[in-house]
Fold:
Amino acid sequence: MAVNFKVKVKKVNGFCDYGFKEGQEIELNGLHTPKGGFCGGAYHALFPYLNMLNFGGKFPSIDIINATCADGGKVMFEIKVQPDEEDVNIMSAEKRNNELDVYAEIKNTLIKIGIDEENIKPEAILSTDIDMDSTEVVELIIYIEKKFGLSFESCVLKDYTLNKLSEEIYSRLGA
Structure:
């Protein structure tokens, strides 16, 4: 699953074209920008940290790091990783016996990473019918690795239907 971040505006020097205010907090899910939009200069400054943390990197012995806006250093941000609410554990043998559980797990994950539930159907192809971008495909791969202990290549996974993916996971689990 994607890592959740809380980004806080620590300081604004002068005028911020995007309108960030000191003390403002923005929550980011993985590498996705908020629905209301986000300043490109700020995202440019934050991306190296968000990318590293999202793919398993850690800050050295601290929970918070500061980053400065790429637009002349006008805005200073504080990035904090939000604790994961879910425990990561491989699916137990009892749960492996039901392919519908696998489908439901994948569907719930797609909803959590921002896929519109109306587009999630058993015969929907991940890359075209569900319209998953590369970041969302990677988030799904990370989830599958954590939850089921299985790995997939993004170039292969994106062409699966949701039903085929569920069947493949179920089959690989040896159920």
Notes: The longest helix spans residues 40-54. Residues 4-81 form one domain. The helical segments are 40-54, 93-96, 99-112, 134-148, 154-157, 162-172. The chain has two domains: 4-81, 93-172.
